[in-house]
Fold this sequence. Notes:
The complex is a heterotrimer. Chain B is mostly helical. Chain B contains 12 helices and no strands. Chain B is elongated. At the B-C interface, helix 5, helix 6, helix 7, helix 8 and helix 9 of B face helix 1, helix 2, helix 3, helix 4 and helix 5 of C.
Amino acid sequence: MSEHLDDKELLFQFKNEATRESAFTRIIKKYQEKIYWHIRRMVVEHEDANDVMQNMFIKVWKNLENFREDSQLYTWLYRIATNESLTFLEQQKKRASTSLSDENSHLASRLQADKHFDGNKLEWKLQLAIQQLPEKQRAVFNLRYYDEMPYAEMSRVLDTSEGALKASYHHAVKKVEDYILNR
Amino acid sequence: MFNNKDILKELQDISPALIPLQQLNVFTVPENYFTNFSEIVLLEMIAETPAFLSSEVTNTMEVPAGYFDSLADTILAKIKITHIQSTAEELKELSPALSATGNDNVFTVPSRYFEDLSEIILGQVKPVAKIVEMRSHSSFMRYAVAAVITGIMGLSLFSVLDKKNVETIENTPLTASIINDANKILQTNSFDKVLETVSEDEIIGYLQKNGQDVNAALVAASVDVNELPSADDYIINEDALNDFLKELNIKDYSN
Amino acid sequence: MKHLLLIITFFLSGLSALQAQERDNDPAKKEQKIQALYIAYMSRELKLTEVEAQKFWPVHSQFDSEIRSVRGEEELKKQQEVLNIKKRYQDRFIRILGNDRANDFYRKDAEFRKKLVERLKNMRQQNSGNKRMQMNRN
């Protein structure tokens, strides 16, 4: 496990033109896995996740100078990643508009197309259950369930009140549980 | 009193009967409860007997050595533990079934994906490559030079050792001069001009080496309207055409 | 460092001069112009950055030599092999260029060859046109 510099140091180095690229690279390496898996859980396909990752970090490059440091860097990155993922899913829905069937079944079928898919295994069932949720609720669920994000932070990522997030998460858990137990 | 007009309106829509109650609070709270609350909570966490329950507070109470030094850390540690527990506990409360499933990852990622990712992204945010000059020390040039060395070494070794064997992987090494030429073409935007200086043989040789059937490709290439034969060429002789058709018919019947 | 580069360049040109003497016919040298055109074309069409060029060309070089060493009698079998090679390299190109541009690569690669073919066609038309003119004059 390599040593990661702390965020303050990284931001400082980024703002300096001479060290900007190396700082940027370090930021990517520090957060890439966490961010990637968050995106991947939203968009399912690796190729799509990769596209979103790259677009997202390009935005980071362009906007990091203006990051006000009043919240955690991590939170800010998650915010951009989530927005990019949601935008991507929106565009995907529009492109697939020829079919009238439920958009979420589209992602579900992609899951099932994964070569490792095994409908009997609980973890795959869980994924199918999650894909039934509307996008934003899916994000709430993933952030809380997988990333164990506190509601205060989540509220900054999703621009939603903590109370609403809490309610959303509770509903999401119930829906997911219902799917797993009853299907 | 409602501070928020929207909430007031919402309430009017759902249940106007509640409005006269004006959010009245029926519960009472000890004096100074809120001002002292945080202190009490902290004390709750570290003391064995709750502070407000102990009736005897004397000034000669002893404090363990180093108590205050580590106080902050202890409190932080407790806060952290309670924080992490809360998401797992929350889940257990909401759905024991779900909390049993665990976080196993089902998705797979191409090997080396994370190792290479940062470089790829960096490549996309940096401006498009500057023209590499012959005298520059860029690593691209250094690589090219290295490629030349290995390439030509390989070639000379081959021809010295084994003149009989011609069938070898034909790999034109990326020589520095080729790259230099490429750069010149880019700089002077002279792709078409240089293309015109290439000989027929060169093109044919190159295409064949790439496994292309040159003649088939020529035929497949877009037909030039100017090349279409004129009407005169088609029908030389009406009779000839009729004879030809008759021939065809005869052949068909005889099969 | 500059000197080193110069020395190497002289060394190499010396070597290649040796090579030229040993070979009766050096097709490799003739190809240089087309190679240069190809690199220029691809760099422009794919908008390669310096970092990408560094990673891309070595991989492409391998790709190229594999394609060229496909031998065989049957046309379909050869095409199948070429397709397999392209599929195998697709992943590596994607990792260097990203999804969209990896697709573009295969397309632009074919377009480059198309340009060569069209140029060839033009040249032959001009030649036959010249011959016809000559014949008409006679």
